[in-house]
Amino acid sequence: MDKIRFATVWLAGCSGCHMSFLDLDEFLIDLADLVEVVYSPVACDLKHYPEQVDVCLVEGAIANDDNLELIYQVRRHTKLLISFGDCAVTANVPAMRNMLGNSAEGVLERGYLELADEHPQLPHAPGIVPDLLERVTPVHEVVPVDIFMPGCPPSADRIRATLEPLLQGQTPTMAGRSMIKFG
């Protein structure tokens, strides 16, 4: 049996969903027998998203140019894209910056000039610091999403209950409090 080509991606978020993924403990050993991890901030140091990925868990919202470029690559090269956690599903905490208006410049001024204790200055590092988008958005507002797995972060039990059916060629049932509760 061919292994499932599996990836995880971390966009604008805290990495809590990936930490919860690591809480799968012994199931990670079972998972390793069934999947080939082809891209992940947890297990790989790859610079480019690979082609022909079967399943990808996407954590985080779309907040900057790098996030936008990566999510387009992910969608283009992934059969089944899972919005992984509240930031991916709703934009959650990263989207709080949207309250400052639809101006990336206004966000930078607030964070680096108005709230600075010492040496207020805007970050200027072309090519190093990605440009902010005008708004932070959830993944599904940018690309089609196949499965939504909310939670901040989703529990290891929810992650496992989502992945196990997929590993058996089935679609997980994303219903009931244990599978779709936010927060």
Features:
21% strand, alpha/beta, 183 residues, Rossmann fold
Can you lay out the helices and strands and say which pair or pack?
Blueprint: E1 4-10, H1 16-22, H2 27-34, E2 35-39, E3 53-59, E4 62-64, H3 65-77, E5 78-84, H4 86-90, H5 104-114, E6 132-137, E7 147-149, H6 156-167, H7 177-180
Parallel strand pairs: 1-2, 1-3, 3-5, 5-7
Antiparallel strand pairs: 4-6
Task: Note down, in words, how this protein is organized.
The structure is a single chain. With 183 residues, this protein is of the alpha/beta class. The protein has helices spanning 16-22, 27-34, 65-77, 86-90, 104-114, 156-167, 177-180; strands spanning 4-10, 35-39, 53-59, 62-64, 78-84, 132-137, 147-149. The strands form two sheets. Strands 2-1-3-5-7 form a five-stranded parallel sheet, with helices on both faces. The model has no long low-confidence stretch (mean pLDDT 92).
Count of structural domains: 1
Q: Can you name the CATH architecture? A: 3-Layer(aba) Sandwich
Spans of 5+ residues with little confidence (pLDDT < 50)? none
**Rg of Cα set:** 17 Å
**Helix tally?**
7
Helix content: 25-40%
Stated plainly, the CATH topology is called Rossmann fold
Termini separation comes to 37 Å
Silhouette = globular
Mean pLDDT: 92
CATH hierarchy class name: Alpha Beta
Widest β-sheet, arrangement of strands: 2-1-3-5-7
CATH superfamily: NADH:ubiquinone oxidoreductase-like, 20kDa subunit
Helices and strands, in N-to-C order?
Answer: EHHEEEHEHHEEHH
Largest sheet: 5 strands, parallel
Beta-strand percent range: 15-25%
Oligomer category? single chain
SS elements, strand count: 7
**What structural category arises from helix and sheet content?**
alpha/beta
